[in-house]
Write a structure and sequence with these properties.
By secondary structure, this protein is α/β, with parallel strands linked by helices. The chain has twelve helices and twelve strands. The longest helix has 19 residues, at 14-32. The chain starts with a strand and ends with a helix. The structure holds 3-isopropylmalic acid (IPM) and magnesium ion. 3-isopropylmalic acid binds at residues 75, 90, 94-95, 249, 281, 283. Keywords: Amino-acid biosynthesis, Branched-chain amino acid biosynthesis, Leucine biosynthesis, Magnesium, Manganese, Metal-binding, NAD, Oxidoreductase.
């Protein structure tokens, strides 16, 4: 198979975990005789340094000409958030990228890896036979993309962020969630705040309407505050969680507690044509950058999602997932998933072991 992949390493740990993931990609390419043309682009703070823009035109073109995008992470240290290099970096880069290519649905799988049960903070009785959830998050609406304004009124400093949804945005992501549920256990839990927000009331009615097209899928509605609690008392009730942009952002980080680390959480973002971007759910983790200690698994599993969803290379995807699993089974741990304090192997060592299983 011949395909072009846009590679956007970005900032922080992005370049380190990306370069390791490309080793995996190369091995799969050779093993299966594929030809992947990799075109690297700058994004985020690193792009700002080179092009004075967090998302330069040239990167847009690289993405537009590709068959799929593999993204690392963007953003700088909080204490430098006002430096030009980092100011509004996430908004100008990843959010702009999502908007440019209309990536409206984001999927984030979160499960307890049997081998890593000991780092899941939940009790065995709560983990039961295993937690295996997919969060389907709307990615182009909500408070993220409404008007943002900081101003002064009556000598008071004020700010507002407008939360907006239209029925089409909701229905697109709802269909995505129901289709996903059909491939899994036929259950969708739609999460909102319909006891307060108009956007959530609209959300609930549209999701219910879409749900009628999928009579074989059970639909439940849940308030987001209750959902957050249910994560800790009965997480096994969930199969597919469908939710809006901001709630999805928060709940997907919370769901990282199931595997035990954000370093294990891949994600995929789709537009209606099926073009997609793949990225770890975690951020650029500037405090870990340059130390060769970040966990490469979220990025590596993002590659596996890319093979599966963009290229229908199911065997290749499966081999990567199994190699990760075998590595964990054999007891190899990076620092973030190691229960022993101050221990853990490096990013490159972890990748070496995963590679050895491919
Ligand atoms: C995520 C991230 C982004 C988001 C940030 C970096 C803007 O937290 O992908 O979850 O909020 O969507
Ligand atoms: Mg987030």
């Amino acid at each position: 198979m011949k395909k072009t992949i846009a590679i956007l390493p970005g900032d922080g740990i992005g370049p380190e975990i990306m370069s390791q993931t490309l080793r995996i990609l190369k091995k799969i390419e050779n093993k299966f005789d594929h030809q992947f043309q990799l075109v690297e682009g700058y994004i985020g703070g690193s792009a700002f340094e080179k092009y004075n823009s967090h998302f330069p035109e040239i990167t847009k073109v690289i993405c537009a000409k590709s068959d799929a995008i593999l993204f690392g992470s963007v953003g700088g240290p909080l204490e430098k958030a006002e430096f030009p290099k980092w100011k509004d970096c996430e908004k100008n880069s990843i959010l702009a990228l999502r908007k440019t290519f209309h990536f409206s649905s984001n999927i984030r799988p979160a499960k307890v890896f049997a081998e890593l049960k000991e780092i899941c903070p939940l009790k065995d009785s709560i983990i039961g036979n295993g937690i295996d959830i997919v969060i389907v998050r709307e990615l182009l609406g909500d408070i993220y993309f409404g008007e943002h304004l900081t101003y002064i009124e009556n000598q008071l400093r004020k700010a507002k962020d407008i939360c907006e949804y239209d029925e089409k945005q909701i229905s697109i992501v709802a269909h995505q969630a129901f289709r996903m549920a059909r491939k899994r256990n036929n259950k969708v839990t739609s999460v909102d705040k319909a006891n307060v927000l108009d956007t959530s009331k609209l959300w609930r009615s549209i999701v219910s309407e879409v749900g009628r097209d999928y009579p074989d899928v059970t639909l439940e509605h849940m308030l987001v505050d209750n959902c957050a609690m249910q994560f800790f008392i009965q997480p096994t009730q969930f199969d597919v969680i469908l939710t809006s942009n901001l709630f999805g952002d928060i709940l997907s980080d919370a769901a990282a507690a199931f595997p035990g680390s954000l370093g294990l959480m891949p994600s995929a973002s789709f537009n209606e044509q099926g073009f997609a971007l793949y990225e770890p759910s975690g951020g650029s983790a500037p405090h870990l950058a340059g130390k060769n200690i970040a966990n490469p698994i979220a990025q590596i599993l993002s590659l596996s999602l890319l093979f599966k969803h963009s290229f229908e290379l199911f065997e290749e995807a499966d081999i990567i997932e199994k190699a990760v699993q075998k590595t964990l089974q054999a007891g190899y741990r990076t620092k973030d998933i190691c229960i022993k304090e101050n221990e853990g192997i490096s990013t490159t060592q972890m990748t070496d072991i995963i590679l050895s299983h491919i």
